[in-house]
Amino acid sequence: MEYFEFRNVVIETPNSVEAEAYRKLELNISMMSIDKPTQVIQCTSAAPEDGKTTTAINLAAVYAEKGKKVIILDMDMRRPKIHRAFHKANDRGFYDYITDNVDYHELIIHDESTIDLLLTGKHMSFPHIVLESHKTADMIKQLRTEYDYIIIDSPPVLSVTDAIIISKYTDGVVYVVAYNKTKKEDAKAGLVQLQKNNARIFGSVFANVDVRKTRGYYGYDYYYGSKKSE
Amino acid sequence: MDEMKQQETMVEEGITLAELVRIVWNNIILIMLVTVWVTVIGIIYTFVVVSPKYTAETAIMVQYDPSTIPSEQTGISIANALMTTYKEFVVTDLVLDSVISDIPTIRDMSTTALKNSITISNTTGAYMIYIEVENPTPALAQEIANQIVQNSIEIANDTENGFLFLQNKLKQVYPAKLPTAPSSPNKVLNVVISVILGGIISLGIVFVKELFNNKFQTREELEKYLNLRVIATVPGTVKERKLVD
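Output (structure tokens, whole complex):
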């Protein structure tokens, strides 16, 4: 089976335009958090492979770069990917906390990038039930006291109910839409589901934009975006 | 308020035009490929598939004896009537069948096919009728043109037939010459048409493709459709991502 390698541009190429885009994402989130502080951020999208994981790891890297204490929770129990992004083995994680009552502190991986990770561990049946449990809620509540930022990588909204359940624990959702890939009606349907469940949506990340095809527009967007955030 | 509305409309129009340019620019390779293909097909059709045709031209003059006409006005209307009648008469089966039977090489040709290869024309003010015959063989085009004129005059003049109206009023002005260069296909015109047609077809394909494209192409499109602010635009293409096992 073929997998895409997840690039953490903020760490690998900190001066790139891509890295700058994620810094702008962080800036925009912080601007929206003046009156309502943000600590737990969920990255989701309508369909798979739109760029949720890439957004999650890069956003976390921006917080780490700023010296914030940040953890990524892989809550995509069905298709976990965070371990691949950080080249770790997914042998222990959330599963052990839920089923074997292992202290989650022991399960947290401290990556050299200073980003902490909590992987999924073994495959779990009925993830939606697990996600709705008090144990999950308690863990996130506890993590809020230990970390500045908690980034949650969640499954796509349209595939399973998991993303909606997770949104209840978060302070805001970053909705990833892939350029020339996400179908308009899917993106709309996913967004409506989140909105119906009263999720706070920061905005969308337009991922994988082919700059060559949108050259003039990109410059305009960038300027426009900066103006807006000022 | 009105001013604001007007401004909004102007912005809308601006985006639409820019969108069109973007669509064309993004599909420029497709447009060029389709155009080149259609042009190549046009060139092959013009230079290989279509056999060249030659046109032989002759002219016939309509005349009457002025002494038999009471006034000039009557003369003009008679001449006009003669012109119209001859133009119809020359392509009747009576004339064409006689031409087919007189030229052995076109025995198998149908009257309709022969009729389709003939073009009759005239210029205003002149009592001349031009007869053009198109044929893949130059000599045959010339022969048919001359035979048509000859036979039509003979039939018209034949007292036994009783066609009094056209009798002794027709005269061949000059015989058809042997055409040296093919009259069709018009190579330059065909190539130009192929290029234009290719451009139109390719643009059509591109716009239909865009019409059915239900994916987000620009940030504006996304913001408008989802009514959601884009807080980051991340460049990159899927191709750039490395594949790992």
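The longest strand of chain B covers residues 54-62.
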